[in-house]
Design goal:
Layout: E1 16-33, E2 36-50, E3 57-65, H1 73-82, H2 88-93, E4 104-114, E5 117-127
């Protein structure tokens, strides 16, 4: 019986502002970056926009260094998303990113091209101006039997 391999072709989410709901907080572990090894996390969102080819929400994400330092992008985006600064307690005790699963956000999406492929990236997060619900089609990475790498559309 033949075993056929194919490339997964996905359409990137269109650029612009949209509403999304957080569907995953993925611990990526220690990752080599341009600043050395860093502990990274990826926040994954389903958007209000539907892919016309599949009928399912586009998925977008943003990776962060797992830090709440004053200059940390994660802290900046959390405070923008929540609409208020993190408290001293949240900063010192830590902020559980899993509590954001199911929370809506305003997402600014930009398309970037790399190696001939077009990707949609979250470039800014704001408080949501409306509520949406997860589609139920996304399986959290930690619940996947093989902990498969994250596939985004």
């Amino acid at each position: 019986m033949p075993i056929i391999a194919r490339a997964t072709v996905t359409d990137p989410c269109p650029s612009g502002m949209t509403v999304g709901v957080c569907v995953d907080a993925v611990d990526m572990g220690i990752v080599e970056s341009m600043h050395g090894k860093r502990h990274k996390v990826r926040m994954v969102f389903e958007t209000k926009r539907l892919n016309p080819k599949t009928g399912f929400p586009f998925r977008v994400s943003r990776a962060y260094t797992l830090s709440l330092g004053k200059k940390a992008k994660l802290r900046e985006d959390l405070e923008a998303w929540l609409g208020q600064p993190l408290t001293r307690e949240e900063i010192s005790a830590g902020f559980d990113l899993e509590h954001l699963i199911g929370v809506c956000a305003g997402l600014a999406i930009a398309q970037n091209e790399r190696n001939g492929e077009t990707y949609a990236n979250v470039v800014a997060i704001t408080p949501a101006d409306e509520e949406i619900r997860p589609s139920g089609e996304y399986e959290r990475v930690c619940n996947r039997p093989d902990q498969a790498p994250l596939a985004l559309s």
